Amino acid sequence: MTEFLAYAVERYTYWAYVALMLIGFYAMIAHGNLLKKLIGMNIFQTAIILFFLSISAKRGATLPIIPPEAGELVVAPPHFMNPLPHALMLTAIVVMVGTLGVALAVLIKIHRTYRTFEEDVILRQT
Amino acid sequence: MLLDHLPALLAVVPLVAALALPLAGAVRPRLVYPLAVGAGAVTAVLSLLTLERVLTRGVMRYHVGGWPPPWGIELVVDHLSAFVALTVSGLVALALLYAGPAVRSGTAGSPSPFFALALLYLASLMGIVVAGDLFNLFVFLEVASIASYALVASGGGRALMAAFRYILLGTVGASFYLLGVGHLYLLTGTLNMADLSQRLPELGASRVLLVAVGFLVIGLGIKMALVPLHGWLPDAYTYAPPAVTALIAPVTTKVAAYALARVLFSVLGAPAALAGIPLMSVLAWAGGAAILVGGVLAIRQNDLRRLLAYSSVSQVGYIALGIGLANRPALAGAYLHILNHAMMKGCLFFAAGAVAARLGGSALTDLRLMHRRMPVTTACIVVAALSMIGIPPAGGFFSKWYLLVGALEAGHTLLAGVIVGGGLLAAAYMFKVLEHACLARPDAAGHASDESPGGRAEAPAAMLIPLVALSVGIVAVGIWSAPIVSGVLWFAAAAGLE
Amino acid sequence: MGTEPIEAWGPALALLPSLVAAGLIRLSSRRPALREAWSLIASAAQAAAVFSLVPAAAGGAVVQTTLIELAPGIPLLLRVDALGSVFAALASGLWVLTTVYSIGYVRSLQEHAQTRYFFCFALCLFAAVGVAFAGNLLTFFLFYEILTVSTYPLVVHKQTGAAVRAGRMYLAYTLTAGVALLTAVALTQALAGTTEFRPGGILPGTLPIGTLWALLGLFVLGVGVKAAVMPLHSWLPVAMIAPTPVSALLHAVAVVKAGVFGVVRVVGYVVGPDLLEGLGASSLLAWLAAGTILGASLLALTQDNLKRLLAFSTISQLSYIVLGAALGTPSGLAGAIQHIVNHGVTKITLFFCAGAIYVASGRESVSQLAGIGRRMPVTMGAFAVAALGISGLPPASGFLSKWYLIRGALEADQWPFALVLLVSSLLNLAYFVPIIISAFFGSPEEAGGVAEAPATLLVPIVLTGAASVLLGMAPDAPVAFLSLASGAAAAILGAP
């Protein structure tokens, strides 16, 4: 049991993102309100961004910017965080914002058409 | 040399056109349609050139901005990508041509946004096809999805809810895929496909790899609407404007299937089993289940477009099955089915749109007297239906033949039964359509002179030409399937199985 | 079989007229006269082309055309051998007469959708001749499926609820069979490495017994449905809802004969009689056929609708051919192949007569035929000759093939089958003779003011009737059917 706890504690960032994902997923499935579903989706996506960022983190490392005056000796990978996941996530965030934008636009049109965000009310009208 | 930039041009040309289109539309609205069709046609021609170059000179690798991988972005065009690129761009070009009358009459939204989105969609599909690393594949996958969400939603009314559901599920799919990519990166420190395929075997199976593959397959499974992850598809295809369905239905799921094949074969090296889980067999059986479930559900539909949507679910199963069987004939069959299904589903959705425009709806009962009022469209439906059922010499038969040979070679007798049985389900739902379209009695006496046209109502030429082109193409691909397979797909299949 | 196939364009050219005609007919949908002219010209051209190939085939030569590749290593192969030319000559020869008959029939009844009718008819003939000339299983399957699909619009021609239901049943049976056949073809390719027909079979005898039985089962299902072997026969009587010329040419000749032709092809050129015998499958198949012969004859006795009665008679007669193929003796095989022709010619006469009666009087039931022979003497005369011929009595040709079949049964020391054939003849007489008697000896008043059908219907009846007599008198006279049949049997059994 203690082993498992140690294991779990050691990887606490992962548990955080798993928890976030599940929260988001739950909201998408369980809520009848479309806006809440969308918020759930956003939480779900954010969890994945956090996961990627946690990949790049290293204890005691600094930003991956090498000052020009630093000599060759200073440049050792353990001293710097991995910049790639950050770059990837910047792109991913842009993509997610795009999705969110389209989703919000659709929600606005849904609200204009049906005057509600409640899924069951909408489905009854169609 | 401009042709050296072909892999990039495939995506850049439609992308630039998509951005330029609204500007052109602001100045000269009438230019939008010809420009869009032109951009689509140019992309298709570029795809053809690419295929020709791949066939003569082998795989093309293109380093964006001159940065070599793994630092830079790499675009790779091999036999499979070139083949899928040609399929996709050809279909989309025809769909753009087809959309003209609908857009002019306002049933598919206003011209500039529709065509700009359609070209953005095409650009990102081409991006998926040429992407040489997993993250770019994700980006293009999502851009394509965003474009198709917006296109579906442009129908208004019930299409809005369908689009919203599509957004939720599509995003979950993409997120799963991204999560899988993240785990692979965690494992190897690279995202380049060629790089990954070198490093993964050295690392061997691990729990992380299993998780990664699981997420990748489920994510792409949602995008390709593989049973039981197909929930978004029927509503989206049914309620989207006909011109939109005609655009997205033939290619969306096929490109996702391409991505799945890419990940499984070019990255993971087609592991027969992963940590005790027979991954490929599971996929093959999922495909088999899709064939049956989609087919049975299609038979129960009374609306042409909904029926076709479920038929898509069923036909995607063939592709998944072929990928899962993972031997040469089966893979060739799956890849050939990407082309065949794109063409027949395109043909049928084009026809459904023409019917909706001319006969007032797409319920099967609206098809009454269709064979009199729209004889050419009816003939095209017949050809596509025969292809769907798998009657030679229509193309659909030949993909099934290779799948069948592959299934028998792999010793999967039951799946062989599913492959041919799926043809019977297709016969049941397609003949249901044909009965309504061709066999409704014109009058009680039944001895009316059948040669009187009785109000011909064929769709305008811009809709009819793509329709006829596809039905001719279906038969042509059937007749020349052997050269296609031995010239292109054999290599594509073999490359995946090395 | 030492003869090397000769590459030539003949087989492909023989196939072409009907395909071209189908296109031309579709294009001339507004001009009935032109449409009918295309049908006539095409049928005559096809018959001429096929007949021109017969002498070579009768001499033991094999002519073939290799067209495009269907799949890597499997070409679209058209090959004219003795067996194939029998079926092709039968189908294309009778197509000429059926076209004349069809023109008279659809004009008299003012049928609707005539363009579709003639279009599909031409396609069916294209497919039937293709089945006959197919040189490998995949080519065979291709034409077999085209035949299935192009017959469907003819079955549902009337477009009534009953016709649509009959069409569904027809499709359910034939497409399921197609699926079984496709699986069998793919399995054969996997097991034998080839699908090319070879006299004596291509399957290696070293395969596991279970696999062989499974393959045989698929083949029997695949070709057995069109051959209407019981219990796979139910679609045939139901499909009789089609217009009579369709029933005559397709459901008495082309489609069902494609089935029995398929049985002979598969037995003789894929599985091989030796392997069939070795498995013990031949006696099973023979008993299946014998059961069908007797069962269908008994069912025919209970029919009142004339076309349905003829349908059950057809089912029974088709199994003669299956029986002959299953016996696998020289006489049995020769008899089976001959019976393809003899039954085709006599049965089409009977269907033509049924159609003529329907056109002239609107009657379809056996019980309404009393006295009709006095009003329509030519029609009923031909009917009587053909009916007796089917039952195995001279002068019409049925007795010849039946004689061969009985000899075949005795050669194989299987006297029960000889007995089955004799009993079946008696049953045939039992359902045909009362019709003939009441038609000729019933009171003419019952027949009312019926007169002979128009000449376009009458001429084909007389010609097919005469042909069946001629085939009985001089089996080698018009086309060398007897030598073709013996030649094919000898090739299959490996005799010189």
Order of helices and strands of chain B: HHEEHHHHHHHHHHHHHHHHHH
Specify which chain pair forms the largest interface: B-C, 43 and 40 residues
Instruction: Give the overall shape of chain B, derived from the CA principal axes.
Output: globular
Number of helices of chain C: 20
Give the tally of β-strands of chain C. 3
Helix content of chain B: over 70%
Radius of gyration of chain C: 21 Å
Strand content of chain B: under 5%
> What is the oligomer described by this structure?
heterotrimer
Q: What is the average per-residue confidence, as pLDDT of chain B, rounded to a whole number?
A: 88
Q: How far is the first residue's CA from the last residue's CA of chain C? A: 8 Å
Mean pLDDT of chain C: 85
Number of strands of chain B: 2
What structural class do you assign from the helix and strand content of chain B?
Answer: mainly alpha
Principal-axes shape call of chain C: globular
Strand order of the largest sheet of chain B: 1-2
Class based on secondary structure composition and strand pairing of chain C: mainly alpha
Poorly predicted regions of chain C: none
Sheet bearing the most strands of chain C, described? Answer: 3 strands, mixed
Low-confidence stretches of chain B: 444-453
> What portion of residues of chain C belong to β-strands?
under 5%
Topology (SSEs and partners):
The complex is a heterotrimer of chains A (126), B (498) and C (496).
Chain A: H1 2-10, H2 12-30, H3 34-56, H4 83-114, H5 119-125
Chain B: H1 6-27, H2 32-57, E1 60-63, E2 74-77, H3 79-104, H4 111-130, H5 134-153, H6 158-188, H7 193-203, H8 207-223, H9 233-239, H10 242-248, H11 252-267, H12 279-299, H13 304-325, H14 328-359, H15 370-373, H16 375-389, H17 395-409, H18 413-438, H19 461-479, H20 481-497
Antiparallel strand pairs in B: 1-2
Helix pairs in contact in B: 1-2, 1-4, 2-3, 2-4, 3-4, 3-10, 3-14, 3-19, 4-5, 5-6, 6-8, 6-9, 8-11, 9-10, 9-13, 10-14, 11-13, 11-14, 12-13, 12-18, 13-14, 13-17, 13-18, 14-16, 14-17, 14-19, 14-20, 16-18, 16-19, 17-18, 17-19
Chain C: E1 6-7, H1 10-27, H2 32-58, E2 63-71, E3 74-80, H3 82-109, H4 114-133, H5 137-155, H6 161-192, H7 209-224, H8 235-238, H9 244-271, H10 273-279, H11 281-301, H12 306-327, H13 330-361, H14 372-375, H15 377-391, H16 398-411, H17 415-441, H18 444-447, H19 455-473, H20 481-493
Parallel strand pairs in C: 1-2
Antiparallel strand pairs in C: 2-3
Helix pairs in contact in C: 1-2, 1-4, 2-3, 2-4, 3-4, 3-9, 3-13, 3-19, 3-20, 4-5, 4-9, 5-6, 5-9, 6-7, 7-9, 9-12, 9-13, 11-12, 11-17, 12-13, 12-16, 12-17, 13-15, 13-16, 13-19, 13-20, 15-17, 15-19, 16-17
